Amino acid sequence: MSQSANADRFTGLADIYAKHRPAYPAEIVAALCARAEAAGGPRVAIDIGCGTGIATLGLAQGLPDWQVIACEPNADMLEKARATCAGQANIVFMPNGAEALPGEDAGVGLVLAAQALHWFDMPAFFAEAARVLAPGGIIAILYNNRQTAVSAVLSEVESYLEDNDESYSRDYRARDTQALLAAQDDFEQVERVRSVWLKPTSSDDLVNYFMSRSMMQPLVEKVGLAKLRQRIGDIADQHARSGNIDLPFATELDMATRKATA
Questions:
Q1: 8 Å CB contact between 202 and 244
Q2: Rounded to an integer, what distance in angstroms lies between the CA atom of residue 187 and that of residue 33?
Q3: 21-65: per-residue pLDDT in tens?
Q4: Which residues pair with 24 in a beta bridge?
Q5: Looking at residue 212, what is its pLDDT?
Q6: First-to-last CA distance in the chain?
């Protein structure tokens, strides 16, 4: 399914998403910007599936001499991205989906998909990225991945959600992005940069973090919003220490280079 076909899933979630989704570690953003600069291509970047602009802002600040094109097909999310990035003059906003990237052939130096690849028609996206990227340009896939396997509170919440909706899976977006990039004929020099870190989180923040996810809507309809929030909050309270929970994340940035054309 295409990104545009999935766009409505996030309608009404922009505010809670912007407030409760974590930013990306500074060292990861720096690594992305350094590789883009070193490529020496056109100083144009596309942040596709930009959501509320969490990655967009860091990218634009890290590449101040570049034009950053922030693309998001959901109108609510795109409007929030404008607010998130207000005052950052090197960003333009467009409603494109991943399967129809803006830009001329070989006119872009970086294509970034942050927290979004799982919503794309991937063959179409990779073909479009290859089209717009100049030879030597960079494609980057970025995720903040919660580390459920090493977190008792995350494991308990996920088990509760799976028990109450047979269509829900904690692994819905799990995929080997390094292998995906390596399998693309148009790309080479695959590299991963990884950062493991803890996010201090209150019980209420944990509830809202989960509720910012589009995958929760079927559960809201089955369980009820109030009951769902209450149960996740109760689980969080059982694991909180001095009012906080340290949520483990692994931020993974996978990058590859556009091969030279024949």
A1: yes
A2: 18
A3: 999 999 999 999 999 999 999 999 999 999 999 999 999 999 999
A4: none
A5: 97
A6: 31
Contact 52, 84 (CB under 8 A): yes
Reduced DSSP (H G I as helix, E B as strand, rest coil) percent helix, strand, coil of the chain, to 5: 45, 25, 30
Whether the model clears a pTM of 0.90, i.e. scores above it, the answer is yes
Tokens of 261: 């054309």
Q: Each residue of 158-180: b (16+ CB within 10 Å) or e?
A: bebbeeebeebebeeeeeebbeb
Q: Output the six-digit token pair for 124.
A: 């179409």
CB 160 within 8 Å of CB 232:
yes
> What is the distance between the alpha carbons of residues 75 and 150, in angstroms, rounded to a whole number?
36
User: How many Å separate Cα 237 from the centre of its chain?
Assistant: 28
pLDDT tens track for 150-207: 999 999 999 999 999 999 999 998 999 999 999 999 999 999 999 999 999 999 999 9
Which pLDDT value is given to residue 1? 55
Q: Which residues contact 204 (CB under 8 A, 6 or more apart)?
A: 233
Q: Three-state DSSP class for 101? A: coil
